[in-house]
Amino acid sequence: MRLSSTTLFLALLAPLSWAEDRIVQPGESIQAAIAASFDGDRVLVRPGTYLQTIDFAGKAITVLATGGPTRTTIDATGLGGPVVRFHAAEGPGSLLRGFSITGGRNLAPFRQGGGISGQDFLNELTSTARIEDCRIYGNAGLIGGGAAGNFTIRRTSIYDNEALTGDGGGLWGGSSLEHCVVADNRAVEGEGGGIFVREAAAAFAHCVIVANRSNAVGRGGGIYVDGSATLDLFRSLVVENEACSDLHASNGGGIYVAGGLSLRFSTVAANRTSGLAPGTGGIHGFVNASNSIIWENTNAELFNALSVSWCDVSEPTPGIGNFNDDPLFTAPAAGDYHPVSTSPTTDAGDPSLTDSDDGSRADIGAYLARPLGVRENTTPAEWMTPAFPEIPVRFGGEQRWSVRTDAGLAGLAWALLGSITGTSPGTSVLGVQIPLNPDGYFRYSTLHLNTLPLASSLGTLDGLGVGQARFLVPGALPPVLAGLTLWHAAIIFDPDTSTGIVVSNPVELLLVP
Q: 0.70 cut: is pTM over it?
């Protein structure tokens, strides 16, 4: 029989499936939409609180909260088990994005993760799904209170979770993190109050690990790196964590390393150990540290380090380029671990390396010693609404900066200006050269100070010479704006004479989908 061209065309289409969006409204079942989905589909969840649990069931789909984590919550309180399950070895094609995840309580042995469970030891399955733009809080599990798996996690806060009998108060497994906050998590009877890294070559970049606690066993208040794992820690802040044990020695208030740790351009400060026999408060174990600040960790800074170079360490430490001068953090008591512009960490790194913003010799530590910088996300209010150097156009968000000078400039005015065309060659403002190119956004920012999106862009330096600036993205912006980079810089000037005194470095802000 001869097939017509139409019949042949339809026959070719038959095996194909088309990606589909499935809308979930408050009161409806997210799981029902997942069950009806096929690989490539999206489950779009409208703002609201959903009292349920979900299971990706092995599907390569996107489950997306259209209003973002401040407006969309999946709450499993009283339901038992984790809030989200990835128990079929889901890969990077499975994406959970934009939710608050809370109320999980996973007491099942061999299935780790209180809030998000991606580790199923019964079937030897581990998920490598993606988690983005989420808040994971108020969950508990035997192991991995907040989440467990080998996820890729971006722009996410993991806070106030508990591992009840095992390791990893906030996170357990081999996940890699970028622009994340891990705060106020607890390993009640295990190791790794914030994070337990296991059986992986993990990487954390631009993260804040703060105020986590390992009890009972007392190892790795902030991070524990298992003997089967390695961790590359880059441009990250590990501060105010604690390892405590009344049973035996406690070590690694900041980081305990049984495997391997590469510490690069990071800051490990104000961590501590306590209990029966307090030991190393900073980093205990096999670390290669470079271009980092390791400062005032209670009881000891380092133990068994493999190599340390171009670092500022409280204790005199052998190694090329090391020194032990006060890094002059802006306000550590208030959680501001940016070095002031006169810090000895400025231009003190490996002389073969340069800073990306001005091409000068590398500064050391998590943050460049510059007058303008993104806030640290170290205080409780900032854990819930963190400021990252990326803002999703879909959800919106805010970026907050600190304008940091010194007390000698107190009382002067400051203004934050912007550009979308770059920083070079810049332009003259009030008699000084500012590193922003004049364009439409630049003109708008000069004519509409303290007007959205620059919700706070004009002020007066306080008694310490500090000001606070804010950029606000409302959300639901056109997707075409994703990928746009904005640069901002501050000018300090005398308001009486309209004379520019000093300008800051430029800071990038990236709009993402």
A: yes
